[in-house]
Specification:
Helices cover about 40% and strands about 15% of the residues. By secondary structure, the chain is of the alpha+beta class. The chain has one domain.
């Protein structure tokens, strides 16, 4: 298994050290192995680097609050959306995999009851249409969004591009 340190992330991913340390201190991003005292280092996997770059893009390019971006990524890690929440696009419902996902569609649902928290559901989608299909899964999902009144916002991420960016930086 490939392992990386904070230094590797700063150097290869071009994320300022202070910024990364703040994210780690606040628990917004996490290493696979947390340092356990003086002289030890946080150890990150390639998937951890995908998470960190995705987190950075969500807050920098999509202007999301750090806590929101962290929750969204945690939802991917859990790969178990709240019961009944994964059926947004039942015909395009693939399991999440950090190594093969192409697009991610996150949906912010409007709370239906006072005091209810906003929920974020996600959908991992392929870039290409299945044989015989008239639309790609992503284009179909985006068209369906127009008819949902319980969705406040949605975010689409080209995760394949993020993964390739990280992989190139690690070469």
């Amino acid at each position: 298994m490939e392992q990386y340190t904070t230094f590797d992330i700063v150097k290869k991913m071009k994320i300022p050290r202070e910024r990364l340390q703040e994210w780690l201190r606040r628990g917004l991003v996490k290493p696979s192995v947390r340092a356990k005292g003086v002289g030890t280092k946080n150890i990150f996997t390639r998937e951890d680097l995908y998470r960190i770059v995705l987190f950075s893009q969500l807050i920098d390019h999509h202007q999301l609050e750090r806590e929101t971006a962290s929750l969204m990524i945690k939802g991917l890690d859990d790969a178990k959306p709240a019961p009944g929440r994964k059926e947004a696009f039942p015909e395009h419902n693939w399991d999440w995999n950090w190594s093969t996902a192409e697009f991610i569609l996150w949906v912010e649902e409007t709370p239906s009851l006072p005091g209810e928290v906003t929920r974020y559901t996600f959908q991992a989608m392929r870039e290409h249409a299945e044989e015989g299909a008239r639309e790609t899964p992503l284009s179909l999902a985006l068209r369906q969004i127009a008819f949902r009144k319980d969705w406040k916002n949605f975010t689409v991420i080209n995760f394949k591009e993020i993964r390739e960016q990280v992989d190139r930086a690690l070469e």
